[in-house]
Design goal:
The structure holds two protein chains of two kinds. In chain A, the strands form two sheets. Chain A has a six-stranded mixed beta sheet with strand order 7-6-8-9-10-11, sandwiched between helices. The longest helix of chain A is centred in the N-terminal third of the chain and has 18 residues. Chain A is an alpha/beta fold. In chain A, about 40% of the residues lie in helices and about 20% in strands. Chain A contains eleven helices and eleven strands. Chain B is mainly beta. Chain B is built from seven helices and 38 strands. Classes of the chains: A alpha/beta, B mainly beta. Chains A and B meet through helix 3, helix 4, helix 6, helix 7 and helix 8 of A and helix 1 and helix 2 of B.
Chain lengths: ~300, ~700
């Protein structure tokens, strides 16, 4: 059902791409931070979307490691940078308009700040990797209607803008000043929260810490909502995230639009997203979860527009 | 080691991730979203919710243990419906589900982090000496009813599963001191750390008290049951890669206990019980390797060793006016007695948990155990017993609302007999909040060493060519196992959104071949050349009768919001016993008839407990425990244990960072516990000791 939903949206993007196909060739430089599977999946999905759209787009793909070859490969109308590393290289190495994909909002903004004194591409936009707060809270409310106190733990030097919460929910946010008190702070949060929501913060949620955070939250019988399918596999109750394929569809749409009017929209959150649930963890915690479809439907009804 | 070193190591690691670039994160990157993790909550770590377990279960968590004010682990079990907790003396609690035939309760499996602490020679649990401090217990799960299919032999009446904090569970330093009535003097320190690959915690503790007061008896003025224990316990978790984790636990304790009467009874059993100190050194080593496989399957290999060395050397009291006459031969002399025992248990187990489909989870495994004992004055020889086991359990969701648990354990016991203990249960979710359960199971209890090869006594004088011997237990051996067939129906309901629950259960258990201590004089032939001489006849273990238990139990856990919780337990139990048909001497053995008749008194008709806890704002906490038990007669108890009722109270004030339940640095707690608030003259199993009202104060500081 959910897959159908995704396919439906993807195909509508393709239809849009087809109608917007331009005669003039757009030279796109696809700059990848890495060649690991998520980036490859993005690249493959973007190529597929553009091919299927019949858009007149030429893609030259390179990895961030190969920076020296960057300038020597003819005209570039648009740089599509996938990931923070590629975005940083594109910011400094290109003058062409820049579209950043798979970047956290905070990271992208920090990067723009860092290079604000230098010559930046005239046009720059992004599709963030983060889900908007409203969507995350909407997901928690739809999946765990009885879990109203949302715990958030973050390190004090991580830029975080806490959201305003919808009615019936309250936020229990704690910043951690030093490593020594991480688990004290965690226990404190778990004592007073119904659900722990992971935020992108490598100082708290490093791969080493995640193990003990999951074990501790399980011990406290507090479900954890993670950032990816990997979190759910490891033991998080659920996660809401966008796959590289979903981001590629949105990126393809923006590229085709750029080919037509040479303009990029404002930086935006992912339009499409997936949710994942761990039913075994739910059962063990004594939580009754609805099906993925029912939760998505409830999110739709609640109006995803609270962001 | 610490959190903010991770950042450094991330930067060092990143070149690998980013194809050799030296780029390091100065701001959030997509890696927060793209990082891969190993499976942390693998199938074997995920417990079944209570509404899906094959047996009725009671869970006592850390907060309940604290609120109860319990200083001894045994006292916590008063919060289990139908559990008997009594004291033979100040350092020998008796914990038994559905009463007990004697002071050595031996029909429950007791596990501490998977180690079976139900030890030979007698098969009981020494609740005082094992090297675990009550503060380190995270939760206790009690399976009420036979569970041999999951927990092996001796799970005839139930299983107590004590789980201590994980290695990562105490990432702080704490010091705690207690002082109070009856010489209570405890001190403990614990610390822990969480690292990249290693987590650990260490606890050091010392406990001491003077036991109970004695009730005045002729010529006996005080009760010598003081005890002191020092222990060290550590748990280390090493997780070099995401899919491999090693759990190492080590513990050591040194316990001294006062025993004997003053002045000693110089007749009967009294000649063997002079005033003395019994010393017990206990240690354990345990290593568990957990390997997580794809598809959320895992393999666990565990080994543990338990060592226990009890020294109880003394000289007998002089027997001036002994009766019967045999002892008069040796009147006026003292003889050495050595009731020591050296025990070693080794256990190896391999367990494989696999999810065959989203609706089916299987656990199976094999294990072996070796118990060797050297106790020359207690057993006829130094036995080494080996047991082997093969077990399997399948949790199968046959429909959206129906769950079947089916399992069995096949065991080959030390006597070479192979037996299977099967169990099947069906849980039906009437709605997500209401579940019915029906279950049938069979379990066996293998005879203990004392029951099979017991020979307890000491040598008296040799006069002429006759070696005189004092002896009070001489086992004939050849006993079969006790067998339990249990049937139960239960209801588990969630009452509200706060997590309040109601758990009801009705059961009917049949236990056949009950092994009991027969006080009749019909013991087996005496050793050649020896004269068996004891003021009471040497006793022998027999299995000549069967019993049934029928009862109703309930637990209500009610949460008044986040700050208050009430737990109410109630059990109504009826026991009946009759000589078994296979017993040819049943009609003529008054001891057996007496035992069978008295057996119905071994469970209290009604028992109940109540625990109320409340957290006031400002860091004040209060816990009130009330316990009630109808009269009960343990078979070897001196007299009927009267109705017991008592109230315990705990008031604590937290300060500093602890006000918000955060037990970290820069805070602490002062707690006062008053036990037996309403009654200054409390008597339970031993009617010769009295529990007076006692109070103690505990101060805890976190660094």
């Amino acid at each position: 059902m959910f897959r159908q939903f995704t396919i439906l949206l993807l195909s509508s993007v393709i239809v849009l791409l087809t109608t917007l196909a331009q005669a003039e060739t757009l030279n796109v430089r696809l700059l990848m931070s890495d060649s690991t599977p998520p980036y490859q999946q993005f690249s493959a999905a973007l190529n597929k979307a553009l091919v299927e759209s019949n858009a007149n787009v030429t893609i030259v793909e390179s990895h961030a490691g190969a920076i020296l070859q960057l300038g020597s490969n003819g005209k570039t109308d648009l740089v599509v940078a996938v990931g923070m590393k590629a975005t940083e290289l594109a910011t400094t190495g290109f003058n062409a308009p820049l579209l950043s994909i798979m970047v956290p909002k905070a990271g992208y903004e920090a990067l723009l700040d860092k290079y604000s004194s230098q010559k930046l591409p005239k046009t720059a936009s992004a599709i963030y990797l983060d889900q908007p707060w409203g969507r995350q809270l909407n997901f928690i409310q739809a999946a765990l209607p009885k879990h109203s106190i949302v715990g958030v733990l973050y390190s004090s030097n991580t830029p975080i803008v806490l959201p305003r919460l919808p009615r019936g929910m309250s936020l229990n946010a704690k910043s951690v000043r030093s490593a020594d008190i991480l688990f004290d702070a965690l226990e404190n949060i778990l004592n007073s929260s119904d659900v722990l929501l992971v935020v992108p913060d490598s100082e708290i949620y490093s791969s080493n810490n995640v193990r003990n955070i999951l074990l501790t939250s399980y011990r406290y019988k507090v479900p954890l909502i993670g950032l990816s399918q990997a979190y759910v596999n490891a033991g998080a109750l659920g996660a809401i995230f966008s796959t590289p394929e979903q981001l590629a569809g949105q990126a393809g749409e923006m590229i085709v639009s750029f080919a037509r009017n040479r303009q990029l929209p404002e930086p935006q959150y992912p339009a499409l997203f997936s949710i994942a649930l761990n039913s075994q963890v739910a059962r063990s915690l004594g939580i009754v979860l609805d099906s993925t479809e029912a939760i998505l439907e409830r999110m739709n009804k609640a109006g995803e527009g609270r962001q | 080691m610490k959190l903010f070193r991770y950042r450094l190591s991330m930067a060092v690691l990143l070149p690998g991730v980013f194809c050799g670039s030296t780029w390091a994160a100065e701001y959030p990157t997509e890696q927060d979203y793209l990082q891969e993790f190993p499976i942390v909550l693998s199938a074997s770590r995920l417990s079944q919710p209570i509404s899906e377990t094959p047996n009725a279960m009671t869970v006592i968590d850390r907060n309940m243990i604290v609120a109860s004010g319990a200083r001894n682990i045994a006292d916590v079990f008063k919060l289990v419906p139908g559990m008997y907790v009594g004291y033979q003396n100040g350092h020998t609690p008796i914990v038994a589900y559905r009463g007990s035939t004697d002071s050595l309760a031996r029909r429950m499996q007791v596990l501490v982090d998977g180690r079976s602490v139900y030890l030979p020679v007698f098969g009981q649990v020494d609740w005082v000496e094992f090297p675990v401090d009550i503060t380190d217990i995270e939760r206790i799960e009690v399976v009420r009813g036979p569970s041999a299919a999951s927990h092996g032999s001796n799970s005839v009446q139930g299983v107590i599963n004590i789980l201590t904090h994980q290695a990562s569970g105490v990432p702080k330093t704490q010091v705690s001191v207690s002082r109070g009535d009856a010489g209570i003097s405890d001190i403990s320190a614990r610390l822990g750390s969480i690292g990249e690959d290693w987590d650990y915690r260490v606890a050091l503790a010392s406990h001491a008290d003077n036991g109970f007061d004695g009730l005045y008896r002729t010529n006996i003025w005080f009760n010598n049951d003081s005890s002191a224990k020092q222990l060290i316990n550590t748990r280390i978790n090493y997780h070099p890669t995401g899919s491999h984790s090693f759990n190492i636990q080590l513990g050591y304790s040194d316990t001294s206990r006062g025993l004997g009467d003053f002045p000693a009874a110089q007749t009967g059993k009294g000649i063997a019980t002079p005033l003395r100190i019994q010393k017990t050194l206990s240690d354990f080593q345990q290593i568990t390797w957990l390997h997580t496989l794809p598809e959320n399957n895992d393999v666990q290999l565990s080994y543990y060793h338990i060592g226990r060395n009890t020294k109880d050397d003394r000289y007998s009291n002089r027997c001036i006016t002994c009766n019967p006459g045999a002892l008069n031969v040796v009147a006026g002399l003292s003889y050495p007695i050595n009731d020591g025992a050296v025990i070693h248990r080794h256990d190896l187990e391999l367990q494989h948990t696999l999810n065959t489909s989203p609706d089916n989870r299987i656990v199976w495994g094999i294990g072996a155990r070796q118990d060797s004992v050297n106790a020359p004055n207690i057993l006829a020889y130094s036995p080494t017993w080996r047991e082997y086991r093969l077990f399997g359990h399948d949790e199968w969701r046959i429909t959206r609302s129906g769950l079947v648990n089916i399992g069995a354990m096949a065991e080959k016991n030390a006597q070479g007999k192979v037996r299977a203990s099967p169990r099947i249960s069906y849980n039906h979710h009437l709605s997500p909040r209401n579940t019915l359960r029906a279950s049938v199971s069979v379990a066996y209890r293998n005879p203990e060493m004392i029951e099979e090869v017991g020979n307890h006594g000491f040598l008296l004088a040799k006069i002429g060519s006759t070696q005189y011997r004092w002896r009070d237990i001489l086992s004939a051996g050849g006993l079969g196992p006790e067998r339990a067939l249990s049937r139960e129906v239960g209801y588990i309901g969630q009452l509200d959104d706060n997590g309040s629950t109601l758990d009801l259960r009705a059961y009917h258990d049949q236990i056949s071949n009950i092994i009991y201590l027969d006080v009749a004089t019909t013991y087996p032939a005496a050793d050649p050349g020896n004269v068996i001489a004891s003021s009471i006849s040497p006793r022998n273990f027999k299995s000549d009768f069967n019993a049934t238990y029928t009862g109703l139990e309930g637990t209500l856990n009610y949460k008044f919001g986040e700050r208050s919780k009430l737990t109410v337990n109630y059990a109504h139990q009826i026991a009946k016993a009759s000589p078994s048909r296979s017993s040819p001497i049943a009609a003529f053995n008054p001891s057996l008839i007496g035992a069978a008749y008295n057996y119905r008194l071994t469970v209290p008709l009604n028992s109940a407990s109540l625990l109320l806890s409340h957290d006031f704002s400002g860091g004040m906490q209060i816990g009130v425990g009330f316990y009630h038990m109808d009269p009960v007669q343990i078979l070897d108890g001196a007299a009927l244990q009267p109705l017991t009722r008592y109230l315990d109270l705990r008031v604590a004030q937290r300060f500093g960072g602890w006000r918000n339940k955060k037990e970290g640095a820069g805070g602490g707690e002062i707690a006062v516990v008053i036990q037996n608030v309403l009654n200054d003259h409390y008597i339970d199993y031993s009617t010769t000791i009295i529990g007076k009202r006692r109070a103690y104060l505990t101060a805890t500081l976190g660094f």
